[in-house]
Amino acid sequence: MDKTQNNRAWFLVLPVLILVAFSAVIPLMTVVNYSVQDTFGNNQFFWAGLDWFRDMLHSDRMWNALGRQAIFSAIILVIEVPLGILVALHMPRRGFWASFCLVVMALPLLIPFNVVGTIWQIFGRVDIGLLGHTLASLGIDYNYTSDPIDAWVTVIVMDVWHWTSLVALLAYAGLQSIPEAYYQAARIDQASRWAVFRYIELPKMQGVLLIAILLRFMDSFMIYTEPFVVTGGGPGNTTTFLSIDLVKMAIGQFDLGPAAAFSIMYFLVILLVSWVFYTVMTNLDRKDVTR
Amino acid sequence: MAWMAWTWPTGIFFMVIASLLVVFTVLAARYPETPRRGVLGIETTRGDRLFITLLGSAFINLAWLGLADAAQWWALVISVVYAAAVFRWV
C-alpha cells in the first residue's frame, strides 16, 4: 500500500529543534570544547588534547564515584520497582479510596528536591529529628553525619520515600488498562493469585514498568540535590555520587577541563543506557502490534 | 562565540558529525528503506546504525585511551572497522 507522506510536517518540529539547540546542543558543544583545553579564567584557553580524558580514566576518584553511583542506582531499582508494583496491586481500583490513594501517592512527587533533602536532614537528626531521636531512644546508634552506613541508609530510604510513588502510579496505570475479561478468564480457569500476576498483570504492565525503570535509573544516576542537602556527600566521600563530585570539581575547584571530560563520559554512559532501554521498549511495542 | 572556546579539532569533529547527519537525512529522503533485523535482533535503519556506530566509537576511543599505551589513531582505525561491521551485520 502506498503511504502518502508530507515532509512539510517536519517544519512543525522546528521550534523544538531550536529550543533543544539552545538548551542542550550548544552547551554540550561548549563542554566538548572545554574538555580538550585548560583555562585559568579570563576566557583564556590552552590546548590540552586528550589529557583530561586520560587523567579522568585513570582517576580513582571518578571510578569510586561511578561505583557508588552504580550501587546506589541498583539498590534504588531493586527496592522501588517491586515495592511500587506491590503498592499498585493493593490500591483500590475504583471509588473514593482510589482517588484518595492517588492523591496521597502523588504528594511526595510534588515536593521540591531541596525540600525533601531538608525534611530528611531534620527528620534524621538525633537531637531534634523524629527519626533520629526515636532510634536513639531505642538504643540504636544512628548518626548519618558520621556513620557511612547510616548515611547510605538515610539517602536510600529518602529516595524510596520520594520516588516509589512514581513507580506505583505507573504500575497502577498499567493495571487499570487490563480488561476485566482477562480476570474473568483467570477465574474460570481457577488461576491462583500468583498465576494472575505472573501471566496477566506483569506482561500487561511490561511497557509502563520499562518506562518506570528508565525514569528511575536516569533520575537516580543523576541524583544531586537530596543527598547534597542531607549529607553534603559525606561522611568523607561515602555519599559523593557522580553529579556531586562533578559539581565539586567544576565549581568548587574550578577545574573546568577535567570536569568537562568527566561530564562527557557521564553523558555517554547515560546515553548508552537510555538507548538500550529505548530500543527494548520500542521492540516490545512492535511485538505487541504484531501479536 | 569566544565563550564557547572553539578549537579547530573540535570544530572539525562537529562538522564531521553534522555532515554525517545531513548525508544520512538526504539518503533517508532520497532512498527510503525498510528496517532490517541484524545480529542484535533489533530492527535498525541506516540512522540507527549510524547512532550505534558513533556511540560505540566513543566508547572504543575511551577504552583505547584508558587501557592502551599506543597512538590514539589506532582507536580510530578500530572504530572504522567497527562501523563497517555495524553497517554490514547489525
TrEMBL record, chain A:
GO cellular component, one term: plasma membrane
Keywords attached to this entry: Membrane, Transmembrane, Transmembrane helix, Transport
Transmembrane segments annotated in the record for this chain: 12-36, 70-89, 96-123, 151-175, 196-218, 259-281
Localization of this protein: Cell membrane
Source taxon at top rank: Bacteria
Swiss-Prot/TrEMBL GO biological process terms: transmembrane transport
Family designation: Belongs to the binding-protein-dependent transport system permease family.
Pfam families: BPD_transp_1 (PF00528)
Protein name, as recorded: ABC sugar (Glycerol) transporter, inner membrane subunit
InterPro entries xrefs: MetI-like, MetI-like_sf, Sugar_ABC_transporter
Topology of this chain in the membrane: Multi-pass membrane protein
Residues covered by the ABC transmembrane type-1 domain: 66-277
From TrEMBL, chain B:
Keyword terms of this UniProt record: Membrane, Transmembrane, Transmembrane helix
One protein family per Pfam: DUF2160
Classification via InterPro entries: DUF2160_TM
Transmembrane segments: 6-29, 50-67, 73-89
Protein name as catalogued: Small integral membrane protein
Organism: Pseudooceanicola batsensis (strain ATCC BAA-863 / DSM 15984 / KCTC 12145 / HTCC2597)
